[in-house]
Amino acid sequence: MSTPSIPANVLNELNRQYNQELSAAHSYRALSFWCEAQNFKGFACFFDKQAEEEIAHAKRIAAHLIDRRVLPQTGTLPAPKHDFQSLLEAARHAQSMEEINTKGIHTVYEAALASKDYPAQVLMHWFINEQVEEERWSTEMVERVQAATCAGSLSDLDRHIERLLAEKLFADLEKDDE
Ligand SMILES: [Fe+2]
Ligand SMILES: [Fe+2]
Which of 28, 124, 142, 176 has the highest CB neighbour count under 10 A? Predict the structure, then answer.
């Protein structure tokens, strides 16, 4: 491909974030397997979908790079945490990953602002919004697991987790959400 049209610091951040999204997918896959093994099939299914979403996020960044004639640099991914003491620990792990991911997105955006890279800024607007949503469900998940104090309420929560986390007060305002 020809000479990169993206400022070097923005390119570094976009590549880093591309790999961070892949790494998040890796972690959600591990979370899904752990939940499945613990018979939390609802959580397993939810985390599996999150893994696919994170792949889609990585592809969104990669497509932006390719549109701007730069090859994405796929790196080595660290092994994700694969074992947890409890469902609460698993949920907290997801929450802390999303918090870290938000910081990553903001770092890309700050680089794009500093370099006046308008296309990358617009790309990051989508991700900044997406992270508000990701932090919303991951916090709600932690709170709901914390509130489910007996075995019966945990398995009930497992059965309905996907619907519960998807339900939003003003859902009709966010039809464009992905
Ligand atoms: Fe993501
Ligand atoms: Fe995420």
Answer: 124
pTM exceeding 0.70: yes
Q: Ligand 2 center to residue 94 CA distance, Å?
A: 8
Q: For residue range 80-135, list pLDDT tens digits in order.
A: 999 999 999 999 999 999 999 999 999 999 999 999 999 999 999 999 999 999 99
- Between the CA of 54 and the centroid of ligand 1 the distance, in Å, is 5
Q: What is the DSSP annotation of 67-97?
A: HTT------PPPPPP---SSHHHHHHHHHHH
Q: Which domains does the chain have, with CATH numbers?
A: 8-167 (1.20.1260.10)
Contact by Cβ (8 Å): 6, 124: no
Separation of CA 85 and ligand 1 centre (Å): 25
Identify residues whose C-beta is under 5 A from ligand 1, the ion: 21, 54, 57
